[in-house]
Design brief:
The chain has 214 residues and is of the alpha+beta class. Helix content is 55%, strand content 17%. It has a single domain, classed as 2-Layer Sandwich (Heat Shock Protein 90), CATH 3.30.565.
């Protein structure tokens, strides 16, 4: 009877541990989904502002913007269901995003991408690169006299996004997601945190490239 009681207790303990682990995972996923849901309003807000300006001043470019935005948003929708996506897919999304931004800024926005083939097989939380580029565009002067240069490279196991430091005279209002959103998603994945540093004349974001197991 003692052996049976001990066995029953052990089974109950295992069951409780499994349930606790499941609840923990479900809680993490719920929190991760909350973070991802913050991205769309932020992204849409900025896109609609750009479109509003184009409709007023350049209707032809506004039509091009709508067409490219549709292609980009389809990619956004397919990425929403995942906690990590291949670096290759992130770069494809960035390609569409930059097309939209160049409609607005022309040659004043200059982005150089040098990501080696091996890094393309790594993973990032979805929208990481797009949000880093958006952060650079949002907070810096971009004009013919002061073009904004951004580079996307790889150093070791980190993807590096570096831009000129040309801060605007006034700060734009934001929704509070941005870099903190990226940091929290890395934490929830149990990965090393990204770093964001200012070293005149550059601002540098360094985000870990994850393995699929992460």
């Amino acid at each position: 009877m003692k052996k049976q009681a001990a066995l029953a207790l052990e089974k109950d303990k295992e069951r409780l541990l499994e349930e606790n682990d499941l609840l923990h995972q479900e809680n993490l996923m719920a929190r991760f989904e909350t973070l991802k849901s913050q991205i769309d309003p932020h992204f849409l807000f900025n896109a609609m502002n750009t479109l509003y300006t184009l409709v007023e001043t350049e209707p032809k470019k506004a039509r091009e913007f709508v067409s490219s935005f549709s292609a980009l948003y389809r990619k956004v929708l397919t990425s929403r269901e995942r906690t990590i996506v291949p670096v290759q897919e992130e770069l494809e999304l960035v390609h569409h995003y930059l097309f939209l931004q160049r409609i607005r800024f022309g040659d004043s926005l200059r982005v150089q991408v040098e990501v080696p083939a091996h890094a393309l097989k790594g993973y990032l939380p979805p929208f990481t690169l797009q949000m880093l580029l958006e952060n650079a565009i949002k907070h810096n002067v971009i004009s013919a006299a002061h073009p904004l240069h951004i580079t996307i490279t790889v150093e070791g196991e980190h993807l590096i996004v570096r831009n000129d430091l040309l801060p605007r005279g006034t700060k734009e209002a934001g929704t509070g997601t941005g870099l903190e959103n990226i940091r929290r998603r890395y934490v929830m994945l149990g990965a090393a945190e990204p770093t964001f540093t200012v070293s005149d004349p550059y601002y540098t974001a360094s985000v870990p490239i994850l393995s699929q197991e992460a």
